Amino acid sequence: MSAANTVIVLDFETTGLSPNMGDRAIEIGAVKLVDGQVVDTFQQLMNPGFRVSSFIESYTGISNAMLASAPSCEQVMAEFNHFIGNDNLVAHNASFDKRFLDAELERLNTNYAGEFACSLLISRRLIQHAPTHKLGDLVRYKNIDHDGVFHRALADAEMTAKLWMLMVNDLEHSGIASPTFSLMQTIAKTNKRSVEKLLSVQRG
């Protein structure tokens, strides 16, 4: 069983919301956790081959001038696929990041061996009293250290990694020794009212 504290936590910045509508990744940031410790990071801008909108420029702080000199999506994603290896993957609102990862790797005729877990869905079950479950709001609610940068890929991946480990450590402190990645996936799919029952069974 793979441990929940050994994962790749990733975040994409993109030209829009849907690769099906022609949107592409413009930045990838990722943190490699092994036994809960950051052992490596990956961050790279990538040129999608077309100009991004002024909204995306202002939202992310990533300008067309910055992207003009960046390597292609294909080059960056080939490097990133190597970085992932066989590890499991975590993202905040993972369905979004998974769509872009799948779409970009499909262009390279490759994929990845690991599975995804969503820190957003898990936080809704484990941090039910938070006013919202947006990443920035959770970081402030749980007093997680951050540098004030939001909507840049590596900064968001680092904050997601801290949130992820906070939730894993909370499970350990509640009596679940060495939470597994599959338990985190199960929590994400469990009805909020049934989470405590699930966890009590895990504590045995």
UniProtKB/TrEMBL annotation:
MF GO annotations: 3'-5' exonuclease activity; DNA binding; DNA-directed DNA polymerase activity
Spell out the Pfam families in the cross-references.
RNase_T
Which InterPro entries does the annotation name? DnaQ (IPR006054), Ribonucl_H (IPR013520), RNaseH-like_sf (IPR012337), RNaseH_sf (IPR036397)
Key word Hydrolase present: yes
List its EC numbers.
2.7.7.7
Record carries keyword Hydrolase: yes
- Family annotation (SMART domains): EXOIII (SM00479)
- Domain Exonuclease intervals: 6-173
Q: Which reaction does it catalyse?
A: DNA(n) + a 2'-deoxyribonucleoside 5'-triphosphate = DNA(n+1) + diphosphate
One example of a Gene Ontology biological process annotation: DNA replication proofreading
One GO cellular component term of this record is: cytosol
Write the record's keywords in alphabetical order, separated by commas.
Exonuclease, Hydrolase, Nuclease
* Name of the top EC class for this enzyme: transferase
This chain's function reads: DNA polymerase III is a complex, multichain enzyme responsible for most of the replicative synthesis in bacteria. The epsilon subunit contain the editing function and is a proofreading 3'-5' exonuclease.
Q: How does it assemble?
A: DNA polymerase III contains a core (composed of alpha, epsilon and theta chains) that associates with a tau subunit. This core dimerizes to form the POLIII' complex. PolIII' associates with the gamma complex (composed of gamma, delta, delta', psi and chi chains) and with the beta chain to form the complete DNA polymerase III complex.
PANTHER family listed in its UniProt record: DNA POLYMERASE III SUBUNIT EPSILON, EXODEOXYRIBONUCLEASE 10
Q: Known NCBIfam families for this protein?
A: dnaq (TIGR00573)
Task: Please give the name of this protein.
Answer: DNA-directed DNA polymerase
